[in-house]
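thread: overnight batch results

M.L. [08:02]
morning all. the overnight job finished for the chain we discussed friday. pasting input first so we're all looking at the same thing
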Amino acid sequence: MRNFRLLDCWKQGMDIVKLTYKLLETLPPSENYGLKSQMARAVVSMPSNIAEGCSRSSNKEVARFFEIAIGSAFELETQLIATESIGYFKQNDISLLVEKIQIFQRQTNAYRNKLI
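M.L. [08:03]
and the structure it wrote out:
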């Protein structure tokens, strides 16, 4: 069993959760059950899957959960781009968050690659 709290990718994921939730507060109420809900699920899934993966006994299982976390990161990045194209956010509203998501993707993928 691994200690997920020590992993930089998990820490980065938790930072992204905080930043995303602050941004989600500014979405209109009409998106409470649409983009807002979907983005909240995706962002929480990122560090959650890392934590769950760390409970697994085989490297193959751990790697699979890290893959899922990466997928959630790509999902969130896409949703942020969508909110910009719809006009909810401007590029400068999401640029730092997208940068952090891309760092998360690279860190998580590097750790996953060590496992396989």
